[in-house]
C-alpha cells in the first residue's frame, strides 16, 4: 500500500529523494511472526530525512555535494529502528544541508503541503513532513536545529517532537550545527510519537551531546489527564504578531485546559530581542566548520542558498561566536528556572499558516519578515535552551490549512509533554480532518 502511494504521490509531494522500496519488501518478507510481536513498530514503514545514514544507501543531505556518499553504517536512530524491525522506505527531501525553513531545494524540488500543494510544506525537514502528511509513511525522522521538525509538522497537521537535547543521539546524522542539532520525530498521533521515542531514545558515547540516563516507557504517560498541571503562558514574544485565527485557536486550547483542571500561570521568558541573531551566530560558524573540507573540494556543487550562508559564517568573528554561546547558556539557565513554577509552557507553534510556494516575506502588524524567520519564530529559542518541545494540530484555519500549538517541558520530562498532548488530542475538540490526497 505505502509503496503504491509513494509511486502515486511522490512526483507532486517531492517527499522522497531515494525510495528504497525493494529493500523494504525484502526486509518485510523476512520478518517472522515472533519478530512482528517484538515492538510497536515491527513491520511498520518509516522514512528518514536524508541526513541520516542508512547502510548501503546514498545520503545526499539534499545536495549535489554528496552525490556519491553511500553510508557504510546506520545512524543511531536508524539502527534502533532496524533492531525494532521497523521498515525503512527511504530517504526524504530537505532544504540543502538543513539550511532553511521553507524546504525549497533547487536540486531535488520543493516539497508541498498535503492540504494545498500550492503551499510550502516548511523545512528543513520538508520531505519527512510531506511523507507523513501525504500518507506515504506513518512516521518519519527529521532534524531540528531551529524548528525544522516542529514547524513543518505544525504546517502539515502532524505531531512533531524535538526531545531534550542529548535524548536521541545524533550519531550518523550529517551535522549542521553541533550546538543546536536535535533528532526529531514526526507522526500522525501522540501514541505513535511515544512509541517511536521509546525506540530511538538512548545513549551513544560517540555523540558528545548524548546523555546517559534511563529511557522512560513513554506510552505510560498516555491516558492521564491534565488536572493540576501548571501550564505557563508567556507574557512576552510568543503571543505577539501572529495570525488572529492562530491566537483564537490557542485561546480555545487554554479554555479547555482550565476546564480540564490545569492551572494557567503567566511566565516571563528571557528577552527575545536578539535570540534569532544569537542562533544564527552559533549556526553559521559551526556549519562552515563542518563543511570546510567540502567547500575546498566541491565548492561549485553547493546551491546558492547554502553558499551564501557559508559566506555569512566567514564574516562572524570568534568574539561574536563566544558571546553568542554565552547568551545560549543564559537562555538555558533562565528558562530552566521557569520550570520551578510550571510543568509546561504553551505557545502557538508558528505565527503563520503555510504560505504559498515562492513566498519571500510575510507582513504582519506593519512588520515585514523573511518567510523562513516567520516559520520558525516560535521554535528557534527552544533549540538554544534544549528543552523538549512538541507541536501538534489544534484547529483548521479558514484558508483550509492546519494550525498548531507547542508544548515545552522540563529537561528529560517528555512524559509530561506527551501526557498533556495526548489529553488535548483525546478530548476530540481539536482534531482536524486528514488532507484530501486526490491529486
Automatic annotation (TrEMBL):
It comes from the Bacteria. Residues 2-418 form the Amidase domain. The keyword Ligase applies. Gene3D superfamilies: Amidase signature (AS) domain. GO terms for molecular function: asparaginyl-tRNA synthase (glutamine-hydrolyzing) activity; glutaminyl-tRNA synthase (glutamine-hydrolyzing) activity. The keyword Ligase applies. Keywords: Ligase. InterPro entries: Amidase, Amidase_CS, Amidase_dom, AS_sf. Hydrolyzes indole-3-acetamide (IAM) into indole-3-acetic acid (IAA). PANTHER family: GLUTAMYL-TRNA(GLN) AMIDOTRANSFERASE SUBUNIT A, MITOCHONDRIAL (PTHR11895:SF7), TRANSAMIDASE (PTHR11895). Belongs to the amidase family. This is Indoleacetamide hydrolase.
Amino acid at each position: 500500500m505505502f509503496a503504491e502511494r509513494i509511486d502515486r504521490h511522490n512526483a507532486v509531494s517531492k517527499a522522497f529523494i531515494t525510495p528504497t522500496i525493494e529493500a523494504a519488501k525484502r526486509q518485510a518478507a523476512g520478518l517472522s511472526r515472533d519478530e512482528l510481536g517484538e515492538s510497536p513498530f515491527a513491520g511498520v514503514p518509516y522514512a528518514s530525512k536524508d541526513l541520516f545514514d542508512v547502510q548501503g544507501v546514498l545520503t545526499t543531505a539534499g545536495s549535489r555535494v554528496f552525490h556519491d556518499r553511500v553510508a557504510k553504517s546506520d545512524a543511531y536512530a536508524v539502527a534502533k529502528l532496524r533492531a525494532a524491525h521497523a521498515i525503512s522506505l527511504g530517504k526524504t527531501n530537505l532544504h540543502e544541508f538543513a539550511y532553511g525553513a521553507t524546504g525549497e531545494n533547487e536540486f531535488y524540488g520543493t516539497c508541498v503541503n498535503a492540504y494545498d500543494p500550492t503551499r510550502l510544506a516548511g523545512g528543513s525537514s520538508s520531505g519527512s513532513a510531506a511523507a507523513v502528511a501525504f500518507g506515504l509513511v506513518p512516521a518519519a525522522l527529521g532534524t531540528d536545529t531551529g524548528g525544522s521538525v516542529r514547524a513543518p509538522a505544525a504546517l502539515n497537521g502532524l505531531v512533531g517532537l524535538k526531545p531534550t537535547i542529548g535524548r536521541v543521539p545524533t550519531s550518523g546524522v550529517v551535522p549542521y550545527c553541533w550546538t543546536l542539532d536535535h533528532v526529531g520525530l514526526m507522526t500522525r498521533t501522540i501514541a505513535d510519537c511515544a512509541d517511536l521515542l521509546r525506540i530511538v531514545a538512548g545513549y551513544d558515547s560517540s555523540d558528545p551531546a548524548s546523555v546517559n540516563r534511563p529511557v522512560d516507557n513513554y506510552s505510560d504517560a498516555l491516558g492521564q489527564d491534565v488536572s493540576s498541571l501548571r501550564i505557563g503562558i508567556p507574557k512576552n514574544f510568543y503571543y505577539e504578531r501572529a495570525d488572529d485565527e492562530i491566537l483564537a485557536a490557542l485561546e480555545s486550547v487554554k479554555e479547555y485546559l482550565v476546564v480540564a483542571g490545569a492551572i494557567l500561570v503567566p511566565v516571563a521568558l528571557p528577552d527575545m530581542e536578539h535570540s534569532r541573531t544569537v542562533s544564527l551566530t552559533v549556526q553559521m560558524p559551526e556549519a562552515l566548520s563542518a563543511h570546510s573540507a567540502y567547500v575546498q573540494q566541491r565548492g561549485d556543487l553547493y546551491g546558492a542558498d547554502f553558499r551564501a550562508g557559508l559566506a555569512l559564517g566567514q564574516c562572524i568573528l570568534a568574539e561574536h561566536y563566544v558571546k553568542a554561546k554565552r547568551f545560549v547558556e543564559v537562555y538555558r539557565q533562565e528558562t530552566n528556572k521557569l520550570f520551578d513554577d510550571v510543568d509546561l509552557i504553551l505557545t502557538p507553534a508558528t505565527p503563520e499558516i503555510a504560505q504559498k510556494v515562492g513566498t519571500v516575506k510575510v507582513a504582519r502588524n506593519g512588520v515585514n519578515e523573511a518567510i523562513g524567520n516567520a516559520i520558525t519564530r516560535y521554535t528557534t529559542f527552544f533549540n538554544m535552551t534544549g528543552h523538549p518541545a512538541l507541536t501538534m494540530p489544534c484547529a483548521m484555519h479558514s484558508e483550509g490549512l492546519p494550525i498548531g500549538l507547542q508544548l515545552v517541558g522540563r529537561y528529560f520530562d517528555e512524559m509530561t509533554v506527551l501526557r498533556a498532548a495526548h489529553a488535548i488530542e483525546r478530548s476530540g475538540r481539536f482534531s482536524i480532518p486528514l488532507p484530501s490526497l486526490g491529486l
